Amino acid sequence: MESSNSSLKHVFDSYNGTAKTMEGKNFVKLAKDCKIIDKKLTATDVDLIFAKIKDKSERKITYAQFEKGLEFFAEKKGCTPADIVEKILATGGPQFSGTQADHVKFHDDKSLYTGVYAQGGPTNVDQINPTVTFGSAPHNDEEEEKVPTKRMAQMSVNNNPAGSLKEVFEGFTGGAAEMDGKTFAKMSKDTKILDKALTATDIDLIFAKVKDKAARKINYAQFQKGIEECATKKKITFEQLEEKILAVGGPVFTGTKTDKVKFHDDKSLYTGVYAQGGPSTIDAGNGMISDISQLCDRSDANVRGVKKH
């Protein structure tokens, strides 16, 4: 069997994907796909051959070991290696099987649909005229009605440019004299100094380099040293990097802003009890309950407990 057989190598590669070596399960799959397994060469025999040809501490085999395995197949089946190779090449590669659904006349032929299904099927959204209004609320054709959604609009709070690195340092530390690694990383993200040359991992390594050995925070002098290291990593001057940091000014905070909801925000559209200020747990005219005698009041009242006088 010639090891230069490119077609056989192609089949070998097709079972391994991007890997250059073959696992035991793929070795067995190849044997099954190519219908090499029979009474003379069982699936157990294939597993034993794989264990025999692989290196002792390895879990995969190389192409050369794969060729050796095919020789053992031929020996076990009582044929020549060329017969085994011919059978493998005839298969060409991995075989995948699945289940194909039967043809169902009344499902597949849409011309046979009746009732609501003939119109496209049921829907859980009523087809309501969009101009319908409810209650006494006026309708404004010019303004599109908005409904509450879970979608939130992103907003950010930015700062004015800073006058010095010291101001930036204190802005991120909240006035504290030291800065931790998390804040140093946030500073690098907020000021947009990260790129392919200076990654988030580089920032962590620089922080570890400039801080004292047993410390978990850095002071302003060490912060300046860290900025110098960042500039070196980006292959720009300290002044150029400083200018970029000062332009941001301080920490950038992002949050969410809710969408405008017409029937919630515009109180002139309120109807019913909400137009009068909304429901209350205290009945008008009765005031707050101040003692137990009011709880035991048995005078005439309506079904809601409001006195009739």
UniProtKB/TrEMBL annotation:
One of its GO terms (molecular function) is tubulin binding. GO terms for cellular component: microtubule. GO terms for biological process: microtubule bundle formation; microtubule polymerization; positive regulation of protein polymerization. It holds the Pfam family p25-alpha. InterPro entries: EF-hand-dom_pair (IPR011992), TPP/p25 (IPR008907). It comes from the Eukaryota. Belongs to the TPPP family. This is P25-alpha family protein. The lineage of its organism: Eukaryota, Sar, Alveolata, Ciliophora, Intramacronucleata.
